[in-house]
Structures
1.
Amino acid sequence: MIRVYTKQRHISKITKFLNSLNLEHEIYTIKDTPPIKSFDLGVSYCYPRKITDPLLSTPKKGFVNYHPAPLPMYRGPTELDDAIKNKEMQWGVTVHYMDENYDTGPIIQIKKFSC
């Protein structure tokens, strides 16, 4: 079971993607109060809140975060504003394992592209 934490506007595309792979899943937003029960993998997809214990340590395979910026340079929720201020000409997205700190877990992959 995959449990995804995201914004309301992303639910339909995430549902479509996970259904296409025939993966069992649950999707939650900040309006929900999900139960603290065992599941296999947690995914944070543009979720606007920090995920902490006990939820962070609940999934058997941990939590991964889709972060809409290249790490470790652009951590936190203001990454896009910071990139504009810095006049970045290259950008990227990062998928990383989550730990107790904000955007600091081991990086799985970064996809970079020109602006």
2.
Amino acid sequence: MPDRANAVNWFEIPVIDFERALEFYQHVFGATLTQNTVAAMRMAWFHMSSDAPGASGALMQAEGYAPSEIGTVVYFAVTSVDDALRRAEERGGQVLVPATSIGEHGVIAHVRDSEGNRIGIHGRR
């Protein structure tokens, strides 16, 4: 890993129902994802800014990709964890870990998305 580089620079979230997942993530995070097809992979990219901290990624529908509630958890930064949890439930998500203080570092929660993936949410209440 190069010195001074963040450990993660890209993530992919497997989806089954592309349109349902796209609606879920756009609603929960108030973001517009950019749809693309790369080879036989259908993707929806989250916004990326090369001069901002953090990693970007995509929703991914392709052979060999399967949603999972176990394994690595990707955390999304939000202004209000409580608002993100409410919006997730509005689109069929399920709260797995409620808003939990991590002290001076803010608040986290875990959600099962519309496809069955576990995702993390991090921010303030």
